[in-house]
Automatic annotation (TrEMBL):
GO terms for cellular component: external side of plasma membrane; integrin complex. It is a single-pass type I membrane protein. This is ITA2B protein. The keyword Hydrolase does not apply. Residues 83-171 form the Integrin alpha third immunoglobulin-like domain. Its main location: membrane. GO terms for molecular function: integrin binding. It holds the Pfam family Integrin_A_Ig_2. PANTHER family: INTEGRIN ALPHA, INTEGRIN ALPHA-IIB. Keywords: Glycoprotein, Integrin, Membrane. It is found in: Membrane. Signal peptide: none annotated. It comes from Rhipidura dahli.
Amino acid sequence: QGQEKLSCNPKKENGTRVVLCELGNPMKAGARITVDLQLSVSGLEDMGEAITFHLQLRSKNSPSPSNASVTVTVPVEAEAEMELRGTSLPATTVLPTSWHWVEGSQRLEDHGIKVEHVYELHNKGPGTVSGVTLSLAVPHLLGDHVLLYLLELGTEGGMNCSHHPALNPDQV
């Protein structure tokens, strides 16, 4: 008839996480009740495609191993929106007409004007992400001519990075 809030307590039982909810004490014989449970479960990123709950109704008055249990499988869908932002510093670069590439030089200015490209990969949520791979293709040759001399590659935030063999070939 009426709606009541249940008192539920999480605990560990035989190495399994259990949530016990007290439905009524005492409960009249033949009573029928409907229970809606809302569970908040965290850390599901690596759980696979589904999570399974085992539900069982037990009575303290007449414990029986034959108490019926129900298995409920709920699909898990991780959702995260990734956003890639990029910028070049300076935004525009013009080489002077008198500038010439000096092959094999160890001087930075003989390889062009320094331009820094910064890319930021952001997770806009709501879920967390792991195992993300960002592949960045930078054109460094135009035919047989050097278009961009790739000097160095750096990361922040605990990321692993692998780079192309064309990175700083003259060891400038």
